[in-house]
Design goal:
- The structure is a single chain.
- By secondary structure, the chain is of the alpha/beta class.
- It has a single domain (2-327), classed as NAD(P)-binding Rossmann-like Domain (Rossmann fold, 3-Layer(aba) Sandwich), CATH 3.40.50.720.
- Helix content is 43%, strand content 16%.
- The protein has helices at residues 11-22, 57-64, 78-83, 85-105, 117-120, 140-159, 184-193, 213-223, 242-253, 277-283, 291-311, 317-327, and strands at residues 2-6, 26-31, 46-49, 68-71, 110-116, 162-168, 170-172, 200-201, 207-208, 210-212, 230-234, 240-241, 261-262.
- The chain has a seven-stranded parallel beta sheet with strand order 3-2-1-4-5-6-11, with helices on both faces.
- α2 packs parallel to α4.
């Protein structure tokens, strides 16, 4: 298949690109590189450096004639959405609409959309939340993800554009950006390995459902099959508190740091955990990587990355421009 992966230079998107390449598909990465990294991009993929809001996106769809679009480009931070809701909506709503309009015009058969089980359900009434749980997001990010789901339903009803929604819980693993994606595991792991002090927001008893990025890739591979449609949680149905994560990472990294708490953040839920019963029964997917194993793989990757940074020379602006031009072909 000819597949577009928007946001394919980012944490989750780049792993999905690798999955498609390994399966023999022809992949085009569409990414504005505002947070994505060139080093993340599979050398067998083609890079188009462009925002999903750009009018020129139509030229890409017209030329490439994609069979499938895997849409991961987004403003993905709850905190940023609270601080700047107009920016959040610009990317997560207007950007999606630009993708959908071009998909409709140029024969795309299906869209896979990365949604958020951690935010679209809001403060949960029962645990774990299944797909039938009420949708009452308490952050602007959650609102825009839910709006995205509604647009997908609309485009399917009006134009026959098929879709799969994957509602992720908190995805973690190698390549996660501790500075731009606000993942607590990535933030804590990097700081502890560098001997810096992590800050726990609030009392640390807030819990989340953490799913390893490799398992997320497998869910996307299954979702890409021609006969698969629908909305599914991609989760583990298990929750861990921030305090527990701090302790586990402290043991793994042998960091000599103590717990330090800061103020709680606006828009963050107290407890979030989602059921994966539907995706297990319908598609045969389940999480395979245990939390401890996932933490081990993640901290190992951060340790290697920090070691490489320590011995490498920072690239100049000219080097970066040259590297981008070599990728965009």
């Amino acid at each position: 298949m000819k597949i577009a992966v928007t946001g394919g230079a980012g944490f989750i998107g780049s792993h999905i690109v690798d999955g498609y390449i390994n399966a023999g598909h022809d992949v085009v990465v569409i990414d504005d590189m505002s947070s994505g990294k060139l080093d993340n991009i599979n050398p067998k993929a083609k890079l188009v450096q462009m925002s999903i809001t750009a009018p020129e996106l139509e030229e890409v769809f017209q030329k490439e004639r994609f069979d499938l679009v895997n849409h991961h480009a987004a403003q993905m931070s709850v905190r940023v959405s609270v601080e700047n809701p107009l920016f959040d909506a610009e990317l997560n709503v207007k950007g999606l609409l630009n993708v959908l309009e071009n998909a409709r015009k140029y024969g795309v058969k299906k869209i896979i959309f990365a949604s958020s089980a951690g935010t679209v359900y809001g403060e949960q009434r029962y645990f774990p939340a299944d797909e039938k749980h009420g949708k009452n997001p308490v952050s602007q990010y959650g609102v825009t993800k839910l709006v995205g789901e509604k647009y997908l339903f609309c485009y399917q009803a009006l134009y026959g554009l098929q879709y799969v929604v994957l509602r992720y819980t908190n995805v973690y693993g190698p390549r996660q950006n501790p500075h731009g994606e606000a993942g607590v595991i990535a933030i804590f792991a990097e700081k502890m390995l560098k001997g810096e002090q992590p800050i726990i927001n609030g009392d640390g008893t807030q819990t989340r459902d953490y799913v390893y990025v490799g398992d997320v890739v497998q869910a996307n591979m299954i979702a890409s099959k021609e006969d698969v449609v629908g909305t599914f949680n991609c989760s583990t149905a298990t929750e861990y508190s921030v305090n527990t994560i701090f302790q586990l990472l402290q043991l793994r990294t042998r960091a000599r740091v103590q717990k330090k708490h800061g103020p709680a953040k606006e828009g963050e839920q107290k407890r979030s955990v989602a059921s994966y019963d539907k995706i297990r029964h319908v598609l045969g997917w389940k999480p395979e990587v245990s939390f401890q194993e996932g933490l081990n793989r993640t901290t190992d990757w951060f340790a290697e990355s920090i070691a490489k940074q320590a011995v490498s020379v920072p690239p100049t602006k000219a080097d970066k421009k040259k590297k981008v031009s070599e990728k965009v072909k």
